[in-house]
Amino acid sequence: MTTIRPVPRLAITSADAPPPAGTYSQAVLADGTLYISGQTPRLPDGRRCTDEPFRTQARLTLANLNGIADAAGTRLADAAFVTVYLRDPRSQATEFDAVYQDVIGPTDTPPARAIVQSDLPNGEIEVTAVIPVRTLERDHGS
Predict the structure, then answer these.
(1) Which pLDDT does position 104 carry in this prediction?
(2) In this model, does residue 137 exceed pLDDT 60?
(3) Pairing verdict, β 112-117 and 81-86
(4) 3-class secondary-structure state, position 62
(5) 22: buried, middle or exposed (CB in 10 Å: 19+, 13-18, 0-12)?
(6) In angstroms, what CA-CA distances link 35 with 9, 58, 74, 81, 128?
(7) What is the rounded CA–CA span in Å between residue 54 and residue 57?
(8) Alpha carbon distance 114, 107 (integer Å)
(9) Which pTM value belongs to this model?
(10) Which domain of life does the protein's organism represent (predicted)?
(11) How far is it, in rounded angstroms, from Cα 63 to Cα 127?
(12) Helix locations, 36-113, DSSP H
């Protein structure tokens, strides 16, 4: 008989990103993979910046993702997959891509990515990420 055990999960939190606006974690680390919840254009204190220009909203949203990734010892540029929700992809995708390239920097293997149209309730953008994470063995005093 095969016994199935749940994979241990660890909530990841960062003061460099806004607290959750509902019942969810900023991110969860499970089985060597970091799953970052949808981030929006909010300051770390939770204030929304939805009246800012799109480029500012995009940069703030990606900064939130990087803040959470950093708390797990990684970065957005190391993501395997990024999902981008835009209110109007036809007019925003090119501008988002310019900000995104600036934030992740030069890389031979940019993350796989999807851009999805969404009727977002607050702001013009929301982004999620899935990032593989290496766990380091702790040295127990040799």
Answers:
(1) 96
(2) no
(3) parallel
(4) helix
(5) exposed
(6) 10, 19, 12, 10, 8
(7) 5
(8) 18
(9) 0.91
(10) Bacteria
(11) 11
(12) 54-71, 89-104
* All structural domains of the chain: 9-132 (3.30.1330.40)
| Opening angle at CA 41, ends 85 and 53, nearest 5 | 90
Write the DSSP symbol of residue 46. S
- The length of the chain is 142
Q: CB under 8 Å to 126, separation ≥6 — which residues?
A: 38, 39, 40, 61, 84, 85, 118, 120
Q: How far is residue 17's CA from residue 97's CA, in Å, rounded to a whole number?
A: 21
Q: What is the pLDDT of residues 21-63, one digit of tens each?
A: 999 999 999 999 999 999 999 999 999 999 999 999 999 999 9
pLDDT classification of 134: cutoffs 50, 70, 90: confident
Instruction: Answer whether 81's CB lies under 8 Å from 130's CB.
Output: yes
Alpha-carbon distance values, 61 to 129, 138, 139 (Å):
12, 33, 36
Amino acid present at 61: T
- In the block, residue with structure tokens 């990734």: 69
